[in-house]
């Protein structure tokens, strides 16, 4: 009898954890889907597609950078209305030597809230004729409301990089 109870308990725990893992997998897939919809909407210049991935009260925390260093004391909150209202909703067009990619690198779930870390990479000619290669990361918060996941907020400007080639000549005589 003692063994039977242990076996039943182990079986019940296995079934419960399997259901939790299945739900978590579905949540992760839903979060990846809203990121894909948002990014594809930007690529296509499709405002409706982008907005459908965000809650009406979406906002961005933006940190400006100076000389590649984030200036946290100058961070600001930008409402989704402000951010999306100023967008140029034209499809992205790239030449042969330029492009843009984006991906989710990490998702952390906690009930009806999720954190996603994304990475963006862009490259192409710079205005001064050199080649630029850059990227940045963003932290997104997604919320599930009435069984639907959408973006609640994004934090950008804390991590980024940009390189140019060839580099501009320096006036430092030690090089």
Q: Your description of this structure?
A:
By secondary structure, the chain is α+β, with helices and mostly antiparallel strands. The chain has one domain (2-165): Roll (Nuclear Transport Factor 2, Chain: A). It is built from 3 helices and 8 strands, in the order ααββββαββββ. The chain has helices at residues 2-44, 47-51, 80-85; strands at residues 54-62, 65-66, 69-70, 76-79, 99-110, 113-125, 131-145, 148-165. The strands form 2 sheets. It has a 6-stranded mixed β-sheet with strand order 4-1-8-7-6-5. The chain is globular, with a radius of gyration of 22 Å. The mean pLDDT is 88.
Structural class: alpha+beta
In sequence order, what are the helices and strands, one letter per element? HHEEEEHEEEE
- Overall pLDDT score: 88
- CA(first)-CA(last) distance: 81 Å
- Let me know the largest β-sheet: 6 strands, mixed
Sheet with the most strands: spatial strand order: 4-1-8-7-6-5
**What is the overall shape?**
globular
Outline the low-pLDDT stretches: none
What is the CATH fold-level name? Nuclear Transport Factor 2, Chain: A
Concise summary:
The chain is of the alpha+beta class.
Q: How is the secondary structure organized here?
A:
Elements: H1 2-44, H2 47-51, E1 54-62, E2 65-66, E3 69-70, E4 76-79, H3 80-85, E5 99-110, E6 113-125, E7 131-145, E8 148-165
Parallel strand pairs: 1-8
Antiparallel strand pairs: 1-4, 2-3, 5-6, 6-7, 7-8
């Amino acid at each position: 009898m003692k063994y039977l109870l242990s076996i039943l308990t182990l079986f019940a725990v296995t079934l419960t954890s399997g259901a939790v893992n299945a739900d978590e997998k579905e949540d992760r897939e839903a979060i990846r889907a809203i990121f894909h919809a948002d990014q594809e909407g930007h690529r296509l210049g499709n405002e409706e597609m982008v907005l459908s991935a965000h809650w009406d009260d979406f906002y961005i925390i933006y940190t400006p950078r100076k000389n590649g260093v984030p200036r946290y004391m100058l961070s600001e909150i930008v409402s989704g209305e402000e951010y999306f209202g100023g967008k140029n909703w034209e499809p992205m067009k790239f030449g042969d030597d330029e492009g843009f990619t984006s991906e989710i690198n990490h998702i952390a779930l906690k009930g009806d809230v999720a954190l996603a870390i994304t990475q963006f990479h862009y490259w192409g000619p710079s205005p001064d004729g050199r080649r630029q290669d850059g990227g940045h990361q963003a932290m997104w918060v997604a919320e599930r409301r009435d069984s639907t996941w959408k973006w609640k907020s994004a934090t950008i400007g804390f991590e980024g990089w940009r390189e140019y080639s060839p580099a501009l000549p320096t006036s430092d005589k030690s090089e």
